[in-house]
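Severity: low
Component: inverse-folding endpoint
Summary: output formatting inconsistent between runs
Steps to reproduce: submit the following structure tokens with default settings.
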């Protein structure tokens, strides 16, 4: 994971005024709404969010998709977007 992705994840959470615990609960809810009942505990997920935001570990595709649901972004728009090329 790049530093830019960790920074982007943190910014998305903070722009909404959410704590890591709140984000973890949002991810669990999104998973359950999608039929996934095999989520870790909120405390464990909160620690993972810290690691993702601080570039300690890569975020898996499973959690990328859950973030997309929670943040209401399309998978193609997940993460920092490249700057448009000058014309």
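Observed output (run 2 of 3):
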């Amino acid at each position: 994971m790049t530093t830019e992705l960790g920074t982007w994840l943190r910014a998305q959470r903070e722009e909404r005024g959410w704590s890591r615990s709140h984000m973890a609960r949002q991810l669990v809810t999104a998973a359950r709404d999608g039929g996934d009942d095999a989520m870790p505990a909120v405390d464990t997920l909160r620690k993972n969010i810290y690691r993702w935001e601080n570039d300690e570990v890569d975020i898996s595709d499973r959690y990328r998709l859950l973030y997309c649901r929670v943040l209401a972004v399309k998978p193609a728009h997940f993460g920092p977007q490249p700057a448009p090329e000058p014309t």
